[in-house]
């Protein structure tokens, strides 16, 4: 896939495929000491190489395979000092057996797997953008759990526009930069990005906002995304909705879901109906007389049973 195609997909309001993710990983390998492995290896996990005695991050895929496949991206980080694998997932808080198998191959010396609390994606298709944002924060020595990435909640078309635009700039410039957040990082001294020997030397920074306040912002944004009381939008596009879930879409109040109670009484046959049910659907506005069925119901039952027995060749 061409660079232009990758950048187009990065900015588009859609799911990031493996070519775009790998384009980012190539930039990482050029500018840092990290060696993230090809995301296509998920198809044959034995292609992954074991990582020992160094810190490492990988972006992993979980889902189906094919041209129209829909899956999920997440970021994992291995801390060599503690032998712990940290999982940074913008949507879920669990791993399937296939991902555990991949982690066993990647990190044979791991002691445990820990799920880290991070900001959640506002839609059902931006997991790749957030996995890349988590990875970038880790590369720059930051903790993704403390990061409150900018989400454009007021943008009804693309709520991850700011993050996608930033990622697009990374692909175009091939220069890694931290993703924009709601707080600024103030350097204790001069921030240095040294690309000597393809390694990034990062001077640690301190933030202008404390951990507690940042977490409160993250929690507030998560509640806003899940509740969406003021920003709920109508459920118009229903094609593949199960794969494109968005917490701000007002599914429950859709006329296809909220049909009310069956409490409308037909004036002709006394059948109970829903409020939006077509008139005459039950008895064609009195043209069908169900009382006749009640009078001859035993006769109809006998005829019905005889027909069944005849079909079973019992006569």
Automatic annotation (TrEMBL):
PROSITE patterns for this protein: ULP_PROTEASE
InterPro entries reported for this sequence: Papain-like_cys_pep_sf, Peptidase_C48_C
* Gene Ontology molecular function: cysteine-type peptidase activity
Keyword check for Hydrolase, yes or no. Answer: yes
Q: Where does the source fall among the domains of life?
A: Eukaryota
Q: Name one GO biological process term.
A: proteolysis
| Residues in Ubiquitin-like protease family profile domain copies | 1-138
- Write out the entry's keywords from A to Z: Hydrolase, Protease
The keyword NAD is assigned to this record: no
- Please report which protein family the annotation says this sequence is part of: Belongs to the peptidase C48 family.
Protein name listed in UniProt: Ubiquitin-like protease family profile domain-containing protein
- This protein's species is Macrosiphum euphorbiae (potato aphid)
Q: What is the lineage of its organism?
A: Eukaryota, Metazoa, Ecdysozoa, Arthropoda, Hexapoda
